[in-house]
Specification:
2 strands, alpha+beta, 1 helix, transcription (chains A, B), DNA-binding, MADS-box/MEF2_TF (chains A, B), TF_MADSbox_sf (chains A, B), homodimer, 41% helix
Amino acid sequence: MGRGKTQVKLIEDRTSQQVPFSKLRSGLHRKAFQLSVLCDAEIALVVFSPGGRLYEFANAG
Amino acid sequence: MGRGKTQVKLIEDRTSQQVPFSKLRSGLHRKAFQLSVLCDAEIALVVFSPGGRLYEFANAG
DNA sequence: TTGACTATATATAATTT
DNA sequence: TAAATTATATATAGTCA
């Protein structure tokens, strides 16, 4: 998306991963939230960054 | 998205939830996959539909 | 950097078949 | 009708402050 078309392939450089990781993770979280609200779905989402940091989303349904 | 703007609020009618649920769940899965590949992230995603069906995505990192 | 912008790719609501 | 299409809303890659 955006100005360039992205290949779904590994961004090799760890530093270059950081901004995309942050943006995509945040978008994924938003989508999970929307699905949970719109369709009354229970969702758990767990993401570990390459650096080993944990991010999670969960709703109680 | 699409032709109408969607409110982030519960679709009350269970039948009317079904198509959006299927589309949004599939989009969420795709986004999770993209994040896992692009940024070498480990992700687990668990979704229960209102009907109690389980959908999951996980990558081994 | 971290965040804002914006041009453009993508996702999807409504529609059609 | 379930799948394909299409028009449009949304997400985001690249850019810049």
